[in-house]
Amino acid sequence: MSKYVYGIDVGGTSIKIGLFNFESMDMINDFEVETPKLNHKDSIFETIYQGIISNNEINNILMDDILGVGIDVPCPVKKGYVHTCANLNLNDTDLISSMKKYLPDHVELVAANDATIAAFGENASLKNPYDNAVLITLGTGVGGGVILDGAIVEGATGLGGEVGHIRVYDEEEKVCGCGSKGCLEQICGTAGILNYTKNLLPNDTSILDKDQLTVKAIFDAAKKGDPVALKTVHRVAKYIGIAASILSIINEPDVFIIGGGVSKSGKFLIDLIQMYYKENARFTTGDIPFKLAMTGNQAGIIGSAMLVKSVIVST
Amino acid sequence: MSKYVYGIDVGGTSIKIGLFNFESMDMINDFEVETPKLNHKDSIFETIYQGIISNNEINNILMDDILGVGIDVPCPVKKGYVHTCANLNLNDTDLISSMKKYLPDHVELVAANDATIAAFGENASLKNPYDNAVLITLGTGVGGGVILDGAIVEGATGLGGEVGHIRVYDEEEKVCGCGSKGCLEQICGTAGILNYTKNLLPNDTSILDKDQLTVKAIFDAAKKGDPVALKTVHRVAKYIGIAASILSIINEPDVFIIGGGVSKSGKFLIDLIQMYYKENARFTTGDIPFKLAMTGNQAGIIGSAMLVKSVIVST
């Protein structure tokens, strides 16, 4: 009889739940439920449990056939423990023991930060996964995760892998959301991209409309050769390349994976990043491949499911 | 009967050999032999073997009582394998199998990069070792190593932990020895420190003598309040602080350990580094302690011995 694992992606707005075949890691089905805003902490875990119960029924699966549940949350996690969570009522919460109350003993549980889980899942989804991988996701913010020797890097308290806050720009004068200055996110996050482009627009010829500026419009215009858009995109690629060269010299991954909304620009962006990376890479690290993230907004459920499978397999 | 391990530190000029009690990790004795310059690769391993044999005799110890031998070398090492070594005839060499030929099967062998081994040894030498530690060594160059979850970080090919080549200075115009620009080593290595100070001297009042300038003289003058020397030392501390803030956001160690010649300036330097680190640290990583390296030029033999002991204990 088939066995299964669940991958759960807990976000500020919704909880995504995916059921996977344990052997093939094919996804059976997935669905979303609203993230409960109730004040009692257990509401999130109850909601996950109810989701699992009803999804088991829909798929005619017994709880005995569920081998593991992987959960990600949008905050630092250390060995399953959340100290503080800005967007959810999870401060001082042991995710594992909180979930254990609802599930039978045989169900293996893992929990980690969402971007770190995504890094694990993106690498594990490659045809030939690597031992060492770094994911950089480009969206409103810049996030990511670090995988070393096949394991996720959490660091002392779960803040490891916050690649968006690598200091890359010495001359930055504005303060980043993190309280420091010169972070990768200040240049390559949505606000940084839009502000830089807006400042260029009055002085240069461009097909871009200042009043309807989006990151997508900038990348599309750059592909068409628009000089302002190209300047912005080269700047984004340059600083991602520099951040990657710093990551290389500290952790030397076998692969960089680029994800998030901006990564939809595809090979155009990857090629530019790789060019700047090679310019800044040290020693022999310049040949590390860059790949596009493939799991999209299912990164959380796929990564969580893959992480709990890897724990089950190794124990 | 007591059991023992050897720690071996292979340098370009000499090979340091230390004998340690396995239980207490007290050093029984240590000695140096010249690094052989012969062209055949085995000469280094033969020299180590002869050193072990004669030291066993001196200490009246049987080979049966040697549980392990740890070896470090001054080049990237991946799982005991050296691809290229700039200073020694060790290109394309499996250090483990090369040494295995000389030693009985029961002897556990480990080999790794010297700075990474030093990081492992410095952390393991602390009263309460941490899971995650980073060593930054300040000397002619700037080196170091990264320990995560108790294990050394080698990366894809053994280049992990090259903290001296973290890019910290965006405006640097000179090319670093590594081929890139703006590396920590360009500011905080001996040449960087001396050049920066020399450029300041013609214009400022200072007790420093331009023709007899040394890094030690600069740090001593800074302690006395010399304005030129203070400017240099603050610059060094600032960029180490920035590099540490970058390391924190990627790997979030529990501790930073500062070693190398410059670290002899002691608390004076550590306090400055910590001040700049706090200015640049992100989120809650600002409270990570900074400690001075304690093992000095025995870092290699102590770290190698501790690493092989850790492997024996865990298997």
UniProtKB/TrEMBL annotation, chains A, B:
A family per Pfam: ROK
Annotated Gene3D superfamilies: 3.30.420.40
Highest taxon in the source lineage: Bacteria
InterPro entries assigned to the protein according to its UniProt record, in alphabetical order: ATPase_NBD, ROK, ROK_cs
Stored PROSITE patterns: ROK
Family per record: Belongs to the ROK (NagC/XylR) family.
Record's protein name: Glucokinase
Gene: glcK
